[in-house]
Amino acid sequence: MSADFEVVIGLEVHVQLRTRTKLFSSADVSYGDPPNHHVTAVCLALPGALPVLNGAAVELAARAAIVTHCKLHPHSVFARKHYFYPDLPKAYQISQYEEPLATGGWLEIETAAGGVRRIGITRIHMEEDAGKSLHEAGDPETQVDLNRAGVPLVEIVSEPDLRSAEEAGAYLRKLRQLLRWVEASDADMEKGQLRCDANVSLRRRGETRLGTRTEIKNLNSFRFVEAAIRAESARQADVLEGGGRIQQATLGFDAERTRLFVMRLKENADDYRYFPDPDLVPLRLPEERIEKIRAALPELPDAREQRFASELGLAAADGRTLVSSRALADWFEAAARAHGSPKVVANWVLRDVLAALRERDAEIESLALAPEGFAALLRLVDEGRVTAKSARSLLPELLFAGGDPAALVRERDLEAVSDAGALEAAVAEVLGANPKAVASFQGGDEKSLNFLMGQVMRRTGGKADPARVRELLAQRLARS
Amino acid sequence: MSEPRETVVELSAQLAAGAITSRALVERSFERLSALDPALHAFLFTRREAALAEAAEADARRARGERRSALDGIPVALKDNIVQAGEPATCASRILTGYVSPFDATVVARLRAAGAVIVGRTNLDEFAMGSSTESSCAGPTRNPWDLARSPGGSSGGSAVAVAAGIVPAAFGSDTGGSIRQPAALCGVVGMKPTYGRVSRYGLVAFASSLDQIGPFAHTAADCALLLEAVAGHDPQDSTSLPEPAPGLSAALSGDVSGLTLGALRETEDAAPGVRARVREAIAELERAGAKVREVSLPHTRFAIATYYLIATAEASSNLARYDGVRYGRRAADGSGGVTELYERTRAEGFGAEVKRRILLGTYVLSAGYYDAYYRKAQQVRTLLRRDFETAFERCDAIVLPATPETAFRIGEKSSDPLALYLEDVFTVSANLAGLPGVSIPCGLDAGLPVGFQILGRPREDASVLRIADAYQRRTDHHRARPPR
Fold first, then answer.
1. Any chain A CB within 8 A of the CB of B363?
2. Which of A368, A382, B175, B407 is the most buried (most CB within 10 A)?
3. What does A307-352 look like in DSSP terms, one character per residue?
4. Could you read off the pLDDT of A228-256 as tens digits, one per residue?
């Protein structure tokens, strides 16, 4: 893409709220169950059925608004958005339109250059999800599954403040981190709990007016969001450079071929005929209730990161990684408290624990080892009772199966050889058995020391403290 | 055939005294139904066997000394837009042909808990859209006072079921007068409670912000009993009032002294005979000790226009769900895509009046017209509410005709929708303002009943019934029965 253009991106993110039941019916929110197993008269839009607002969803939506610094409105209104589709049983979706739950927030993201950019959030409103239309290959009929119909969502609309695919990705990751942190949503993109529409336009650098935009619908992974934005920016740049004009359109993204396709052009845009839903009363969220929800929130990631720096003395980058999820931050902090040396614990967590998780593609929540057990293992290392190397080798098993670190060390016969006599004997044996290496070391070949160390470690089954071995070798070689 | 004149209150006392059985009452309902309904066509569905079994249960309870309520064992009828589990609910529309509700409306659940025996489902204008019961897909209901005339509507079947003595009580729904107007034209009492007083859960929606279920009976005292049984907060209807059902029967003191009645000034649309009967009714209440002064509701001249914008907008939305996908009647021709299926299903399933209102409502909600029509109508609705607030500073209840004229001939207005819409001129304001209103018989004009309407402050259902009851204690108009 030509450097003359600036990409302007705004994101509309649909997030499924973490409720037990649907937004306006008592049917369970489910995933992967047989079709139409979680439907009531309300979900089916039977004659005479009426919606009743799920209060738990309101609380979760309010949390989402608070962590994105939005102003929550004490009075908001549910509206009907009309369109005919077989998976939309009432032929309208209950959403919010003129008076949304919250407006005017922001999120801060880190830029590639290492700076921080503030991305505006226009509004957050609550709405219900639609069902699913299923088309079997070769079957001319459409099947409808209404398990998802009525599942509570918030739509979070950003300002057109994002300037690259990477920034869009950073914004989404930050948003997901916050929503998970306050348990407003599990935000699992594979399960469609976080879906993204991207509005993309280009303009010449220095231009203040926005260019004509296209909207890419239903992007369901961070990778696809970034790939689709890149592809669309490149396409628009080609059009503009060729002297063409961008046509306002709704696009889909074919992830397999990394290609966009036109779903519909603006000419036949829908008229949704929004009007306030007369079956529902305005949503009242008095200041006191907002304050209660705010007060019940856990310490948020930015504050936690700052505290990790100021209280525990962690480097900024380490703190940021440790707050990438609340479970990780909690686990780390509990281990650090039990152990007493936060920096040592942080190093182990950042290197070894995260590696073990990546290896198994697991989440911190799945660990069987309590943070206190992890601290106990590190204490064994501190006390010289097990070498760091042995501890590292035991870590995956301990993390995922749990158990008492000291007992496992004994069971595997990995107690460090700390007995001075045994270690000295091993060193003497190695020196005696390798006169060539001794000679070459004394002839100035420093590398020979590493060879001799390796021999001692092998003789002790890796259980010797390497620093101690090096010390003993140096002493003996100097003497002889 | 002997004319049953008993009220719910009287029948309830006879049941309690063991003078009659519920089974005998239900049997009598079905005898009258068999004899009269072929001509009247008040009922769309009946449930004879189930009703007789339920009546027998009520009798068995009574034999054990149990009694669920004053309604235990009393036969009642339901308008066919109030759903009952296991029963059809067609709303007199082809599009709901074959539909059977899997759940009870809250009103139905409460009636059954009270021991009332539901005998059947009554005719209505399709989806309650009309003032004559002529737009029913099953054909019109006829007025027992003159079979050539309309009973009014849309709850015409329920009004006729009570007027003809088939049941002592029935329920209907009132969106712009659909209880009060047919009650007036059939010479029975019909009450629209305060909006939110009775749960709408299980009432098939026409215009959600206006719809309200209410009773038909011969007396205000009966309506008080019926309303007590079904009113009160329902967590399944977000718009239902938070408080439990008020004590209504206890409020019927017969005393109106100390009350001030506001006689509506703007009644020039009413026929002279109607105005005369209403003047006499007001004079009767004055003799009973009420003070009377004239009140004005200046914005009522916009009420019909406002009503037909709001009601059609909501209807266009509420009826969008009838698409033939999940239930109801689907067009047989399955060619083409889903859009063609919708078009054919809805073209075949809805009648002309329903289509007219869906089109109008879709138009007023459309981008570019919303502000001029829907939003403007909501603003006028607020003005109308303020008119009432101002008027109620000067009086405790407003009295006026229920309808501009007595029963009209079937077919007389069906070719002129606007003329039919004007039938609602005295009733729609109460729906727009959410007020309680009752129409009671106040005599005949040229052999046809005239309805006297009493409107109260929001939530003051009891005072409306108290005035109506006081009037009925002093007069006999509610004892008049159709000639046959």
1. no
2. B175
3. HHHHHH---HHHHHHHTSSHHHHHHHHHHHHHHS-HHHHHHHIIII
4. 999 999 999 999 999 999 999 999 999 88
Q: Which of A80, A142, A271 sits opposite B317 (nearest CB)?
A: A80
Task: Please report which helix (H) or strand (E) contains residue A153, including its range.
Answer: strand A152-158
Is the distance from CB of B338 to CB of B324 less than 8 angstroms?
no
Please state the pTM of the whole predicted model.
0.92
Give contacts of B93 with chain A, Cβ < 8 Å: none
Based on the domain organization, do A147 and A214 belong to the same domain? yes
Last residue of some domain: A382, A411, A440?
A411
Both A361 and A470 in a single domain? no
On the 0-12 / 13-18 / 19+ scale of CB atoms within 10 A, A398 is: buried
- pLDDT < 50 regions, chain B: 1-2
Task: Find chain B residues with C-beta within 8 A of A26's C-beta.
Answer: none
Ranges of residues in chain A whose predicted pLDDT is under 70: 1-3, 266-269, 418, 479-480
User: Does B463 participate in catalysis according to the annotation?
Assistant: no
- What ipTM did this prediction achieve? 0.96
B-chain CB neighbours of A279 within 8 Å are 205, 208, 238-239
**In what helix (H) or strand (E) does residue B213 lie, and over which residues does it extend?**
strand B213-217
The domain B8-263+393-479 having CATH identifier 1.20.1290.10: the answer here is no
DSSP states of B141-167 as a string? --BTTBTTB---SSSHHHHHHHHTTS-
Domain boundary among the residues A357, A389, A411 is at A411
Any chain A CB within 8 A of the CB of B89?
yes
Q: Are residues A324 and A470 in the same domain?
A: no
Distance from the B242 Cα atom to the nearest Cα atom in chain A, whole angstroms: 12
The pLDDT value recorded for residue B1 is 42
Q: Convert the pLDDT of each residue in A94-128 to its tens digit.
A: 999 999 999 999 999 988 888 899 999 999 999 99
Active site residue B173: no
Residue type, A428: A
Q: What is the pLDDT of residues A420-476, one digit of tens each?
A: 778 888 888 888 888 888 888 888 888 888 888 888 888 887 778 777 788 888 888
Same domain, yes or no: A405 and A425: no
Give CA–CA dist A115/A363, Å, rounded. 29
The answer to whether residues A202 and A333 belong to one domain is no
Tell me which chain A residue has its CA closest to the CA of residue B336: A140
Q: Let me know whether A92 and A200 are in one domain.
A: yes
Same domain, A304 and A284: no
Number of domains, chain A: 3
Of A237, A230, A222, A220, give the one whose Cα is nearest residue A260: A230
**Boundaries of domain holding A455:** 420-479
Task: Give me the CATH number covering residue A425.
Answer: 1.10.10.410
Return d(Cα B223, Cα B197) in angstroms, integer.
14
Q: Alpha-carbon distance B215 to B211, whole Å?
A: 13
> Both tokens of residue B144?
């027992």
Query: Long-range contacts made by residues B277-284, C-beta under 8 angstroms, separation at least 24?
Result: B277/B442, B277/B443, B277/B444, B277/B445, B277/B450, B277/B452, B278/B399, B278/B400, B278/B401, B278/B442, B278/B450, B278/B452, B280/B442, B280/B443, B281/B399, B281/B442, B281/B443, B281/B452, B281/B471, B281/B475, B282/B399, B284/B471, B284/B474, B284/B475
Chain A interface disruption, residue of B97, B209, B238, most A CBs within 10 A:
B238
Binding-site residues on chain A for chain B (CB distance < 8 A) = 41, 44-53, 80, 82, 84-86, 89-92, 142, 144, 271, 273-275, 278-281
Q: Is B178 a catalytic residue?
A: yes
Do B89 and A47 form a contact (C-beta atoms < 8 A)? Answer: yes
Which residues neighbour A279 within 8 Å (Cβ) at sequence distance 6 or greater? A50, A51, B205, B208, B238, B239
Chain A, nearest residue to B196 by Cα: A279
Cβ B326–A275 below 8 Å, yes or no? Answer: no
